[in-house]
Design a protein that fits this description.
With about 450 residues, the protein is mainly β. The protein has a single domain, classed as 5 Propeller (Tachylectin-2, Chain A). It is about 5% helix and about 40% strand. The chain is built from 4 helices and 26 strands. Strands 2, 3, 4, 5, 6, 7, 8, 9 and 10 form a 9-stranded mixed beta sheet that branches. A 5-stranded mixed beta sheet has the order 1-14-13-12-11, with no helix packed on it. The protein is globular and about 65 Å long. Bound molecules: beta-D-fructofuranose (FRU).
Amino acid sequence: MANRMEPDRAARSPPQWTRSQAAGIERTDETVAPIVYPPDSEIDPDVHLWDTWLLRTRDGSIAEIDGYRVIFSLTAPSDLLPGTRHDVATIRYFYSSDGRNWTCGGPVFPEGTAFGSRQWAGSALYDDDRLFLFYTAAGSRDEDDLSYTQRIAVGAGGRIAADENGVSIAGPFEHEILLEPDGEYYEREDQSRGMIYTFRDPWFFEDPRSGETCLLFEANTPIPDPEGEDRFDADPAALDFNGSVGIAVSPSGDPTDWTLEPPLLEGAGTNQELERPHVVVQDGSYYLFVSSHEHTFAPGITGYDALYGFVANSLRGEYAPLNDSGLVVTNPERAPFQTYSWLAYPHRDEILVSSFFNYYDLQGLSLDDVAYLPPAEQQRRFGGTLAPTLRLAAENAETRILGTLEHGHLPIADEDLPPLLSTFVDDGSGTESGDGYDDGTASH
Ligand code: FRU
């Protein structure tokens, strides 16, 4: 279970994603991805698939299991309405020898063995021939009514092997609750006043500079008395939106032993949900990425469903929003919910960004409106598979979409990418977007 850290580090005041920074969020040529069309074939037509992460080693490299790379995804049976998928989320694994064609290996954990009534996003570490699957335990295992309690858990010690039939994962996994909110750095459920609190999405990271072993996660900052608060540049009502990026460290490097530390970043007064936080280190800069939604911004701020990012010169540095506002990748105005839950990882001098194909062809409907469509229409307009991977350039505090790869194409380190085209393609959204598309997205 989590201990608390020594007091001097606790004195640090986390950098903020302020309202005035976020007020500058605006679609630009550099940040708008091209329109996504349904792929010729889905990764697995039997399941809806959304949040996805790669199996990686301690230093962040993509793990290779006898020539296969492995991803883990939240999944739900595809005959369920997509809006209900979070209530039954199950982590399945998929493997591929070419990073394009994926085979489902099935659920990672036997039914009823993991914590939670369902499991939400996490990360996966392959270390010393052992698999550590960090996940969010949402609710409690045998609850009759779904609750939204979130705890950070691990299934530790599993085995992964490949043979002529592909990749298989075998237990036993030792499940353990690793972290719960402490109520001081991280809001507990009973302290939350606004939208549903968050304490989820653990992401394993070893800092290449210090060697420190870390677990990042999505959380909220406790603000028990908004009227008496002078730490934040926001009026009291906005402070119900209090998302943060949390961090715990493991001084011994043991991936099952964590100590909570103060957040890396707070968005108090700005946004409620800084989802799936993760870091890419490139040219000595620490790029911290989160996903967030249009509807989780505090009143008065117009944001999008998008990948947001911040840069600092060290893991606990003074994060500044990328592109001034924090906006890194978003969907075109006429398809604002087409992708979500982005995951960035380095590839040579680029950053690749994967996400899932979410709701499309909504013709102006909001995500709330979708629930009122006839069931068949809800199904038709939900992608439920991986989206085209984006190629991104980052230089200091600026980023630019360079192009896309195919749906679900996840290259590993030594893979050559197609040359980038030099002409810009107009995708019809009224906003020019990057070049170098190799999947025909611009031709539909
Ligand atoms: C993002 C997310 C994650 C969460 C999961 C639940 O898409 O909200 O934060 O773990 O979805 O399905």
